[in-house]
Structure formats: C-alpha cells, structure tokens
Design goal:
Pfam families: PTS_EIIA_2. By secondary structure, the protein is of the alpha/beta class. It is built from six helices and six strands, in the order αβααβββββααα. Strands 1, 2, 3, 4, 5 and 6 form a six-stranded mixed β-sheet that branches.
Length: about 160
C-alpha cells in the first residue's frame, strides 16, 4: 500500500535503520552497507532485488547531490512500502557528487513502483532539509541514532515555519 504524501523523513526511519560511522572506503561499499541495514525488514521481499535496483539507479547518474549528501534510491516492487535507512560515514567517500565534494551523510530510500510521486516528494524534502549547513554539521556529529532522529524532526519542524 502506498504511503501518504505527508510522511516526514524521520517517520521513514527508526533507530535500527540508522548507522553512525558506517565503514567503507568506496561508494559501492557504502551503498552495500546501507542496503544491508534494510535486510530482514518486513516491507522488503528481496534485499538482493533492492540492492540491484539501487545500483542500477546509481549507474544512470550519481546520487551524490552535493554538500556531502548521498541519496541512493530506487523504486522496486521488492518493497511493499517506502522505507529509508540513514548513515553517517566513518570517512568521507567519493560519490561522484555534482560538486565533487565527498559524501559524509547518506539517506537510502526505496519504495514500490506504484509510489513514484511520493518517492520524488521525499527526495525533494530531504534535499531541502539538508541544504542547511548547521543541520548537516549536526548530523555529521550525531553520536546516536536517537540524535539523528531528533535532528531530522527538528529540521522538518523548522521547514514548516
């Protein structure tokens, strides 16, 4: 069932889908590590199908959107609903970003083919959210999954003001 269009980023995440200091020195290692976070989630029918969809999307064009943010994402019927995983990286990673800056923050988004418009709205929302320098810095310095969720919620509250 498609999710509602009012979903906030922090509602797509839970502490078990957030990694602080995700290890990896390459884009593929980081993406694989983030996809692995979704393994066993009840809304994912096949983690390997999700992985292939994420890498296929990445081959079309890098999801390094700039300012240290990577947004690997895909639409696949292996996902029953839109879900996300978030990570800060242990070390900066070359992601082929549009501004040539290495990535420190990642939000992986996967959802069903039928939920395309919601998927696009969420990607736009996270881009607006992390366009704020202070929030990106705070997220990079977050010590726990709970800190990340709190920072994202506060950031989204600020977007509505």
């Amino acid at each position: 069932m498609p999710t509602t269009s009012t979903t906030e980023i922090n509602q797509l995440l839970s502490p078990d889908r957030i990694r602080i200091g995700l290890p990896g020195s390459s884009k593929s290692e980081i993406i694989n590590g983030l996809v692995d976070v979704l393994a066993g989630h009840p809304s994912i029918d096949s983690i390997e199908t999700v992985r292939r969809a994420i890498f296929a999307r990445e081959q079309m064009m890098s999801t390094g959107v700039g300012k240290g943010l990577g947004l690997p994402h895909a639409k696949t019927d292996a996902a029953q609903e839109t879900i996300a995983a978030f990570a800060t990286t242990k070390n900066p990673v070359d992601f082929g970003a549009i501004d040539d800056e290495p990535v420190h923050l990642l939000l992986l988004l996967v959802g069903p083919e039928a939920d395309k418009s919601h998927h696009i709205k969420i990607l736009g929302r996270i881009s607006r959210l992390v366009s704020r320098d202070d929030l990106r810095t705070d997220l990079r310095n977050a010590a726990s999954s709970e800190d990340v969720l709190r920072l994202l919620k506060n950031g989204e509250d600020a977007l509505r003001r």
